[in-house]
Amino acid sequence: MAGVADAAAPGGGGEGRRGGAPEQQESGRGEPKTLWGSSEPRPPPAGPGQPSAQQRTETLGFYESDRGRKKKRSLSDLSLLRFISAELTRGYFLEHNEAKYTERRERVYTCMRIPKELEKLMFFGIFLCLDAFLYVFTLLPLRVFLAMFRFITLPCYGLRDRRLLQPAQVCDILKGVILVICYFMMHYVDYSMMYHLIRGQSVIKLYIIYNMLEVADRLFSSFGQDILDALYWTATEPKERKRAHIGVIPHFFMAVLYVFLHAILIMVQATTLNVAFNSHNKSLLTIMMSNNFVEIKGSVFKKFEKNNLFQMSNSDIKERFTNYVLLLIVCLRNMEQFSWNPDHLWVLFPDVCMVVASEIAVDIVKHAFITKFNDITADVYSEYRASLAFDLVSSRQKNAYTDYSDSVSRRMGFIPLPLAVLLMRVVTSSIKVQGVLAYVCVVLFYCGLLQHRGPAYSIVGISLPVPCQAVFVTEGSKTWEVKDL
After folding, report:
1. Cβ atoms of residues 290 and 231 within 8 Å
2. Is the pLDDT assigned to residue 50 strictly greater than 70?
């Protein structure tokens, strides 16, 4: 029986092999029960705590089928209503990025503070320029008179000092002589002929000319102060030193030529502005005002440090004050043509307001975006005012190395001599002084300028400190130590 059983066992195995074909075919249609045949090497046995290969495969198959079911379910869940509902009910929390949004809010507040702080600086700087400009008409003639009186009466006092005149007196005499010479030279320039010559040009040509005049004015202002400083130093340099210059006379003629040419340049600017005011369609005036907005494109997208912004602010102050003087000249010329009819002044008033408003708007927008893009706070304009006050105070001290008007010229690029020559030329040609009463009015007007320079001086120096080593400036409730930038 045992032998029969043993013989039956292989036969059963054979039958199992013979019957294995259908079984394999069936397994080919479905999932196989085993993954390895007898001829394939089996994988190494799983270590302790690890699932067998068959279990891992079954586990992978389970997850793959579950992932497929989820994918089918997610595809079925996508619909327009569910998308709209998710978008309408979706939320977020801004406090997760608090620093970023706080910085953005501070930028908005800074832009809101820029107009106030900028106009305070402009107001302060314009009075600085006005003080230096009035100095030419009020104190400079008196100082020249005192210097000439000392020079004439010098033999009566004897040569107690090695210098005939003090350096400041020499500079005052040179300024007075330059003013007088350039004033008489300006009489040879025909303003009426220049007006009609400019008026006959086309609008586009006048627009190009005005832009070229603005560039030339900046170049003249930059180089002109160097010419004047070279003259002052050449005339007052100690004689013990070795001569390293071409002489006082050549420097003097260079200074006279510069002031004369710069005065003619400003006269052409004023004439062009006058033509724009008197044009019928005001197209030239509109183009000239739109030219101011080109400054925004040329300066907003540049990298600015605090010192660069300070230089640009000083340039804007000088430009605004010069435009105010040009508007004054235009009004004087127009009022003279209309026999000083006060009704014509109201005709010019809207155009004057339009020019001033465009200047203010351009400066505010330009400075607001420059401070925004360069992360500069609005408090920097208080530091600029303090630095300008430092220049004012340092020029009033006993050991000052420069005159106040020259200090303003170096800081802002504003040179009052050419503008003063032009204004004297326009005023004397527009206003006729005849009779004793007219001369009395001129004297009273001069005394008024001398008196009003005191309030301008007090406005310029918001609080002028006593000369000391450490200079402090007080504005309202704020006090800080002033240092030069």
Report:
1. no
2. no
